[in-house]
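Hi V.,

Quick status before I head out on leave. The structure for the redesign project is tokenized and pasted below; the design run finished overnight.
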């Protein structure tokens, strides 16, 4: 395997499936199967999920009259709700997990620390990371980059609705050009909206590549094996 310790970043919207809100259990079980195939190869897996299917922190706080700080904490709680759901849905599929929270102990979910995170990974459980970074004004992408750095993970797989990074939106521009590889400097210069600037900068400084690809069957395994897929930012 090309990578031994990976972080999978999922968007909250990716969990919707055919639903208007919340999580489609079929989508969660599909993801669990994809992760299980990778874990059976001996690869350590951490997962960060966004909260956009429930509440996108900071997206409408001004017009709603909600303080920006409060909105960001609401977003972190949405991430935590998704993590609780994935924990149960993954377990029901036979995938052992443990969730750790950046917001402190919440119910059965224990507090995150670097030591606790590494312990979960050595126990061959999927590590679910809840609560974002635990701080406001930081996106779930940046939170994922921070955790990848702290836990010395090899790579971030950003699983999306499109099959890589384009120079413009392929949903609206049929002539959009897809990159097979791109440097962090180029991604920042072109202002590509794959992950935010802080996430790019954290990964760039830590030499953690980001591979962006579509959530199709077998893609996580292909990426873990080092096969050419999606777009690699490095």
């Amino acid at each position: 395997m090309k990578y031994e310790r990976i972080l999978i970043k999922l968007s909250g919207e990716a969990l919707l499936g055919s639903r208007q809100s919340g999580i489609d259990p079929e989508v969660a079980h599909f993801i669990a199967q994809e992760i299980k195939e990778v874990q059976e190869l001996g690869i350590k897996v951490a997962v960060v999920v966004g909260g956009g299917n429930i509440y996108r922190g900071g997206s409408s706080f001004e017009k709603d009259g909600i303080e920006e700080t409060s909105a960001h904490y609401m977003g972190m709680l949405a991430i935590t709700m998704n993590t609780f759901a994935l924990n149960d849905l993954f377990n029901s599929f036979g995938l052992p997990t443990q969730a750790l929270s950046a917001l402190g102990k919440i119910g059965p979910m224990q507090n995150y620390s670097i030591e606790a995170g590494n312990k979960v990974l050595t126990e061959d459980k999927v590590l679910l990371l809840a609560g974002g970074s635990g701080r406001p004004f930081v996106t779930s992408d940046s939170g994922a980059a921070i955790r990848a750095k702290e836990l010395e993970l090899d790579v971030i797989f950003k699983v999306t609705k499109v099959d890589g990074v384009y120079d413009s939106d392929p949903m609206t521009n049929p002539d959009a050009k897809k990159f097979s590889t791109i440097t962090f400097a180029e991604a920042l210069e072109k202002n590509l909206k794959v992950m935010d600037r802080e996430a790019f900068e954290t990964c760039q400084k830590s030499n953690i590549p980001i591979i962006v690809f579509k959530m199709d069957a077998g893609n996580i395994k292909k990426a873990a094996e080092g096969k050419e897929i999606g777009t690699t930012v490095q």
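Above is the designed sequence. The chain has one domain: 5-233.

G. will cover questions while I'm gone.

Best,
W.
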